[in-house]
């Protein structure tokens, strides 16, 4: 039995891999799509765009692309998507009205990433096919005053009947089950996918995820940039306190791929505190999807056990 979201995206498992500039390339996306989820290729970097064509050598399953709308680098992007056989796109960081109609004209499904109720209202008005609703606990670009997934997702679910994908704070069966209860039909994961076997980042970055705790990220707001949630390091704590990112924004590839965690800012979600091992993508997806229904049932059983215990105590 497939949900609306699974039918819309042509996927077996309603788990979407998040876009991450320089990281979300053909290898990671093909691993996710090959395992039955939706791999997403970033198009903010030249490498990402080249990977759109290359991914077809790795999988014939549906793969999506992400377009960061504020980057304004989307001239000609629709032709690139069509020739790569991409049938769904996630748009983020900007006004979805600028591209949704053109993507629809090309037969492409559009999910838009929102971090506030206001952005969700605008995206619905722009005619998108679904929303990715991301709370402030997620890694990467954020609204500094944004609500957590626990608050934002049910707010958006009350606003619209469109299919919703929950993002921010999701890494396992329990958090996927929670997302269903809050109104989503699927989940998107960034931090968990960053720390997968197929992720191209340096082992030191993956190990930082495994070692992190619940206090291990910080929001920084560099001038002229959106707020970002990043790994707590000497550099990021200084940037958070002073507002000055120094030369840190230029060196992100040295951090991602050489493993120098002080070279730049390591985008990372709070959920890193719940990820305790680096596993292959197929294993991660199967564990989460198979486990989510069991977690829903376990929650019901806990409630009933508590309820029966309370009745027994009252007697
Ligand atoms: C290492 C990393 C890099 C990211 N880079 C981007 C990016 O370039 N553009 C973007 O829109 N979001 C970016 N994100 C945010 C993700 O797309 C996603 O929304 C977020 O990770 C979801 O929350 P989670 O980390 O709790 O799973 C990044 C996240 C991480 C962890």
Layout of secondary structure:
Layout: H1 4-9, E1 15-17, H2 26-34, E2 39-42, H3 46-54, E3 63-68, H4 77-83, E4 88-92, H5 100-105, E5 109-114, H6 117-125, E6 130-134, E7 140-142, H7 149-159, E8 164-167, H8 173-182, E9 186-189, H9 191-194, H10 203-211, E10 217-220, E11 227-231, H11 234-242, H12 252-258, H13 281-314
Parallel strand pairs: 1-9, 2-3, 3-4, 4-5, 5-6, 6-8, 8-9
Antiparallel strand pairs: 7-11, 10-11
Helix pairs in contact: 8-13
The structure holds flavin mononucleotide.
The percentage of residues in β strands lies in 15-25%
Task: Report the count of strand segments.
Answer: 11
Overall shape: it is: globular
Widest beta sheet: strand line-up:
1-9-8-6-5-4-3-2
Averaged pLDDT, please?
94
Query: Which ions and ligands are bound to the chains?
Result: flavin mononucleotide
- What's the helical proportion of residues? 40-55%
Return residue spans where pLDDT drops below 50 for at least 5 consecutive residues. Answer: none
Rg (CA only):
19 Å
Distinctive features:
41% helix, 315 residues, eight-stranded parallel beta sheet, binds flavin mononucleotide, three-stranded antiparallel beta sheet, alpha/beta, single chain
Describe the structure.
The termini are far apart. 46% of the residues are buried. It is built from 13 helices and eleven strands. The protein is globular, with a radius of gyration of 19 Å. The strands form two sheets. An eight-stranded parallel beta sheet has the order 1-9-8-6-5-4-3-2. It has helices spanning 4-9, 26-34, 46-54, 77-83, 100-105, 117-125, 149-159, 173-182, 191-194, 203-211, 234-242, 252-258, 281-314; strands at residues 15-17, 39-42, 63-68, 88-92, 109-114, 130-134, 140-142, 164-167, 186-189, 217-220, 227-231. The chain is α/β, with parallel strands linked by helices and 315 residues long.
């Amino acid at each position: 039995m497939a949900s609306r979201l699974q039918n819309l995206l042509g996927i077996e498992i309603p788990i979407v891999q998040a876009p991450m500039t320089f990281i979300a390339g053909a290898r990671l996306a093909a691993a996710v799509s090959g395992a039955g989820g939706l791999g997403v290729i970033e198009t903010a970097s030249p490498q990402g765009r080249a990977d759109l064509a290359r991914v077809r050598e790795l999988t014939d399953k549906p793969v999506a692309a992400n377009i960061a709308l504020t980057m304004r680098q989307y001239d000609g992007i629709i032709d690139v998507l069509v020739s790569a056989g991409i049938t769904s796109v996630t748009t983020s960081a900007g006004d979805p009205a600028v591209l949704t109609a053109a993507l629809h004209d090309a037969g492409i499904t559009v999910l838009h990433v929102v971090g506030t109720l206001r952005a969700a209202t605008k995206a619905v008005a722009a005619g998108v096919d679904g929303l990715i609703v991301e709370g402030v606990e997620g890694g990467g670009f954020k609204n500094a005053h944004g609500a957590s997934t626990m608050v934002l997702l049910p707010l958006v679910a009350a606003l619209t009947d469109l299919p919703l994908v929950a993002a921010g704070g999701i890494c396992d069966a329990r958090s996927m089950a929670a997302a269903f209860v809050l109104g989503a039909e699927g989940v998107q994961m960034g931090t968990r996918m960053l720390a997968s076997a197929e992720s191209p980042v340096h082992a030191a970055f993956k190990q930082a995820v495994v070692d992190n705790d619940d206090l291990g990220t910080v929001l920084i707001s560099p001038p002229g940039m959106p707020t970002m949630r990043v790994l707590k390091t000497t550099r990021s704590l200084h940037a958070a306190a002073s507002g000055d990112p120094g030369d840190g924004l230029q060196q992100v590839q040295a951090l991602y791929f050489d493993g120098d965690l002080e070279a730049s800012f390591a985008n990372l979600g709070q959920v890193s505190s719940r990820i305790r091992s680096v596993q292959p993508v197929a294993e991660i997806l199967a564990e989460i999807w198979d486990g989510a229904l069991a977690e829903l049932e376990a929650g019901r059983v806990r409630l009933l056990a508590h309820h029966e215990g309370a009745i027994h105590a009252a007697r």
